Amino acid sequence: MGAFHVAASVFGIAAIAYCLLYNSIQFLFIVIAFREVRLCLRGKAYEDLDVVLDSPFTPPLSVIVPAYNEERTIVDSLRSILRLRFPRVEIVVVNDGSRDGTLRRIVEEFGFERIEITYEERITTSPVRGFYEKRTALPHGVTRWVLIDKENGGKADALNAGINASTCPFFVSMDADSLIDPDALLQTFRVMLADDGVAVIGGQVAIANGCRIREGHIERMGLSRSSLVRFQVVEYVRSFSLGRTALGVLDSILIISGVFGIFRKETVLGVGGYLTRFLTGKIALEYAGEGRATVCEDMEIIVRIQRYIREKRLRQRVAFTPYPLCWTEAPEDARSLGKQRNRWTRGLAETLSYHRALLFSRRHGRIGMIAYPYFLLFEFLGAPIELAGYVVLPLFCLLGVLSFPYLGAFFLASAGFGTVVSVAAVVSGAWPERGGEEPKDPHTSLLRYRGEDVAILLFYGFLENFGYRQMTLWWRIRGIWDFLFTDKGWEKFERKGFGEPATSREAGQG
């Protein structure tokens, strides 16, 4: 019995220490990101995007849009692409074997014609069924607009087909169910022009639910009435915007959201393309293994690029900008949110298992010594460790094995400190910064919500660790179980779209 008491005490102390360490790192990320965001906001007032827009030396970009059963959102998403400010854009839409009216809507809405195009299969994909092209009345700045119809192979396979069809040295990967800010390409590509060592750059993804949307354009940011969505906004600000900004400063990024990212095509071709079971490229097979696939291709490709850069000793890096450049529709019900978090966890587990050679590898620098251990210990193992604390410590206290101060210390370290971190993240994101040197210049912030919306987010930041976080922990544990014992696929959740039904969900916007 004595040994059991000792083991229980060790578990209690370890659980408390783990939560303190995790939340301390999260708070440190917020401090690092706060400084970086302030510098970015000050510099934004002086950036002249028209220089990039008007320069004849700005290289063209390919915008690759994979689409699978996106009948409700595809037209608005493509219209948002047409509003992008950039000198020369090539649009490549890939219909990945949709079973709804996605292909028909694109062809009819934009006037595509079936035609043969130059298509070199540098990356192996599932079979292509046909090509379409819009040959007349191309929008201003669009040099080429093609549509690929292929058999279903997953988003990663669709992106690979889009890369094969693209003709530009850089490409943008995005989701067909997302909306891009008109200046997004100029803001991100300006970083690549200033630093030719940037191989990949991503930006903050904001939640569109509750925003005022007209014809594929965000007219005003707002909050959804759904509590689940509001919790997700807090989560996005803390983990995605500020967390990834800090990891970018530390040169330790392992994921760029698949919703929006700019890549050097040469680098992606060098690592063999996005991971699918069809790949035959040497680097992809060497790093990930033959016949491997993943449900989170956006993370796996970044980890493989980071590994490739360090092993080949290339003078390249992966960058991140904290501006909200793209909007996506978040799940509004628990079932859909559970599917999403389950898939994220499975994708994380797949990527970490494929690239386990990175763990504590000095050869791979900060990626091996900082980034991989962090994602393994906190992003992957964090859910079972923390949930075990919520279940086991109260049980030990009720059985008299541990005293209740252990339980109180654990909840302070997890929920209490976690609340401080969430609230600090919202405050950091909403903190105003003067846009220029003159007193009359307006203040700006990372979160472009109204004051009352920020107050609501602060409230939800306080509540997040009392119910919502524990619910997401359970979904993550289910994801680990499914990774180990099942063979689940993508499990796409149903979206409502960005049209009038989405607009009607605005909260408090008169």
Explain what the structure shows:
The protein has 510 residues and is of the alpha/beta class. Helix content is 50%, strand content 15%. Strands 3-4-5-2-1-6-11-8-12-7 form a 10-stranded mixed beta sheet, sandwiched between helices. Strands 9-10 form a two-stranded antiparallel ribbon. Strands 13-14 form a two-stranded antiparallel sheet. The model is unreliable at 436-441 and 500-510 (pLDDT under 50).
The side-by-side strand order for the widest beta sheet comes to 3-4-5-2-1-6-11-8-12-7
State the low-pLDDT regions, or none. 436-441, 500-510
Question: Which descriptor suits the 3D outline?
Answer: globular
Number of strands: 14
Mean pLDDT figure: 89
**Approximate helicity band:** 40-55%
Number of H/I helices: 17
Any idea what the radius of gyration is? 23 Å
Question: Main beta sheet, described?
Answer: 10 strands, mixed
Strand content bin: 15-25%
Structural class: alpha/beta
Terminal Cα separation, in Å? 65 Å
